[in-house]
């Protein structure tokens, strides 16, 4: 199978909420997500209680809601990792900021050691967060940051680009629409509709990003023209938007509705009542999209090939809906669905790694050291998922995904060509079925390259700071690799402010004695932030005496 690599983004953090330690799940959450690369034990196995304390600590989780499969995985990981150390209690506010404020206050009163918040409205929660911090509670904010809330009042927060996420939903939809326009035209005078969210500034950002499919020029979420690097320009300097589809714009009849995140089927029923020719739905929330798609499956079973849903969120079982959308149903594979693509927070193919990353980060905040085991701000991962049906490609159906380059603006990709790109993961094919990702033991021809053998004299590697300028579509990206005397190391993007200047650490760098050195396992197994990190998290570096290059 193809090796799983990420282009430029890191691990996602997602907030999972569960009602009380050991109790059954309540309702689920929306699909806001977030991410970090913590140095914590494996969440799949509960750590031994080595605290020596007789009483359990208390961790409070404040979720916006509980309604999606990914959060079940996360709840299990959180309970496992804190077993024997802390009681995990979860509450849901059902997207109501006032309720969430009171829940945060309640956990403070209860003496919680840490509160994890998946915020409804980060601006509205500011005073409650400050109150929790001043009471000595550790605060972990998942999925939002705020200029009005000083970093001193929280221990860890995710840094997400909701607008970019929405723009990639637009890109995925554009690719499918333009490849299936004949099929859509055969259905008649078809239309597209947007299912949006205006609950907060963050949800509006994703919404505006989705709408970029009908905007010919690149803009930021506030509507300013920008260049490919995200710099604001005047009208004379505007550039083409790669997510724009003239076909989509021509078939947009102005339908925009607030997405009901608990009843996506009702949204779709209402849209089809007023606009019965709607065939393409571009939606804020993946969970509600699966519900909306089910309404179409139930009511238009003979026309499913001409319907499509595209959305964003945390990847739970949405990937399997995409598999069913391109499966041979006559062979008994899957059930009818119309989900054609999604933009995911996180880089896990099946959800397990995402769930573990939440638990690992929470554990690191609870017991670790800031800047070593976790960081104040952590970049969210984004991954594009898309389907290829048999008629579109080479006669084989696919569900594939790759992790998005952490640039300032959306970048185009060819979904068919991407199937052969080493940075793309095949999740399912009609020829091979579900494909399990494999981690490689060392660099090889199959996993990205042969071990490097220098042609000149060896350069001794000594502690210090090394730099690497990585070429990207946005210009060069600075990486710094700091090797410490005690054997630990830090890999960072100090000038990537848009993603929170992400930083990763490891415990042991190795001088190979041949002009190369390695920085092993600073992310763990699985998808990596950049193509030069191998599946097992190790990078081999060619030492140029102050500047380095990765050995891919």
Please write out the topology.
Layout: E1 57-63, H1 69-82, E2 86-92, H2 97-109, E3 114-117, H3 126-134, E4 138-141, E5 156-159, H4 162-179, H5 181-186, E6 191-196, H6 201-211, H7 246-250, E7 252-258, H8 264-274, E8 278-283, H9 286-299, E9 308-314, H10 318-325, E10 339-345, H11 352-367, E11 377-379, E12 382-388, E13 398-403, E14 424-429, E15 433-434, E16 464-472, E17 475-483, E18 489-492, E19 503-506, E20 510-511, E21 516-519, E22 539-543, E23 548-551
Parallel strand pairs: 1-2, 1-3, 3-4, 4-5, 5-11, 6-7, 6-8, 8-9, 9-10
Antiparallel strand pairs: 10-12, 12-13, 13-14, 14-15, 16-17, 17-18, 18-19, 20-21, 21-22, 22-23
Helix pairs in contact: 1-11, 2-3, 4-6, 8-9
Describe the structure in your own words:
The radius of gyration is 23 Å and the shape is globular. The strands form four sheets. Strands 7-6-8-9-10-12-13-14-15 form a nine-stranded mixed beta sheet, with helices on both faces. Strands 2-1-3-4-5-11 form a six-stranded parallel beta sheet, with helices on both faces. The protein has a four-stranded antiparallel beta sheet with strand order 16-17-18-19, with no helix packed on it. It contains eleven helices and 23 strands. Helix 4 runs parallel beside helix 6 (201-211) and helix 8 packs across helix 9 (286-299). 23% of the residues lie in helices and 22% in strands. The chain has helices at residues 69-82, 97-109, 126-134, 162-179, 181-186, 201-211, 246-250, 264-274, 286-299, 318-325, 352-367; strands at residues 57-63, 86-92, 114-117, 138-141, 156-159, 191-196, 252-258, 278-283, 308-314, 339-345, 377-379, 382-388, 398-403, 424-429, 433-434, 464-472, 475-483, 489-492, 503-506, 510-511, 516-519, 539-543, 548-551. It has 552 residues and is an alpha/beta fold. Strand 14 (424-429) and strand 15 (433-434) form a beta hairpin.
């Amino acid at each position: 199978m193809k090796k799983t690599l990420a282009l430029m983004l890191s691990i996602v953090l997602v907030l999972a909420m569960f009602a009380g330690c050991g109790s059954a799940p309540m309702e689920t959450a929306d699909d806001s997500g977030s991410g970090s690369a913590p140095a914590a034990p494996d969440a799949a196995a509960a750590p031994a209680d080595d605290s020596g304390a007789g009483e359990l600590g208390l961790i409070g989780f404040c979720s916006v809601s509980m309604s999606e499969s990914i959060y079940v995985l996360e709840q299990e990981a959180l309970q496992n990792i804190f077993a024997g150390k802390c009681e995990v209690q979860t509450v849901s506010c059902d997207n109501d900021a006032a309720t969430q404020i009171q829940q945060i206050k309640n956990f403070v009163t209860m003496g919680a050691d840490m509160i994890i918040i998946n915020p409804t409205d980060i601006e509205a929660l500011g005073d409650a967060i400050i109150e929790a911090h001043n009471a000595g509670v550790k605060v972990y904010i998942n999925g939002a940051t705020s200029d009005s809330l000083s970093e001193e009042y929280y221990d860890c927060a995710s840094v997400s680009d909701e607008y970019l996420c929405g723009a990639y939903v637009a890109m995925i939809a554009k690719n499918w629409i333009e490849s299936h326009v004949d099929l859509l035209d055969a259905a008649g005078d078809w239309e597209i509709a947007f299912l949006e969210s205006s609950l907060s500034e963050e949800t509006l950002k994703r919404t505006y990003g989705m709408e970029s499919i009908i905007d010919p020029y690149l803009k930021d979420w506030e509507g300013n023209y920008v260049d490919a690097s995200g710099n604001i320009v005047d009208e004379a300097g505007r550039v083409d938007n790669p997510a724009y589809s003239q076909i989509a714009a021509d078939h947009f009849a102005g339908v925009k509705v607030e997405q009901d995140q608990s009843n996506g089927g009702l949204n779709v029923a209402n849209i089809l009542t007023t606009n019965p020719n709607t065939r393409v739905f571009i939606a804020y929330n993946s969970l509600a999209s699966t519900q909306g798609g089910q309404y179409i499956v139930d009511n238009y079973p003979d026309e499913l090939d001409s319907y499509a849903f595209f959305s964003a969120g945390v990847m739970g079982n949405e990937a399997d809906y995409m598999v069913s959308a391109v499966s041979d149903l006559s062979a008994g594979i899957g059930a009818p669905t119309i989900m054609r693509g999604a933009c995911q927070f996180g880089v896990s193919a099946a959800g397990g790694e995402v769930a573990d990353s939440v638990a690992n980060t929470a554990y690191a905040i609870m017991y670790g050291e800031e800047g070593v085991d976790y960081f104040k701000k952590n970049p969210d991962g984004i991954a594009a998922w898309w389907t290829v049906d048999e008629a579109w490609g080479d006669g084989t159906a696919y569900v594939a995904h790759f992790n998005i380059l952490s640039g300032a603006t959306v970048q185009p990709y060819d979904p068919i060509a991407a199937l052969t790109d080493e940075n793309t993961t095949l999740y399912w094919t009609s020829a091979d079925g579900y494909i399990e990702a494999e981690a490689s033991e060392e660099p090889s021809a199959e996993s990205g390259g042969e071990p490097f053998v220098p042609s000149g004299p060896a350069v001794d590697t000594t502690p210090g700071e090394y730099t690497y300028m990585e070429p990207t579509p946005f210009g060069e990206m600075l990486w710094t690799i700091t090797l410490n005397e005690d054997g630990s190391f830090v890999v960072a993007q100090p000038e990537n402010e848009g993603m929170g200047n992400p930083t990763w650490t490891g415990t042991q760098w190795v001088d190979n004695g041949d002009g190369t050195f390695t920085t092993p396992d600073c992310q763990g197994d699985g998808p990596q932030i950049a193509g030069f990190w191998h599946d097992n998290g190790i990078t081999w570096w060619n030492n140029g005496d102050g500047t380095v290059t990765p050995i891919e």
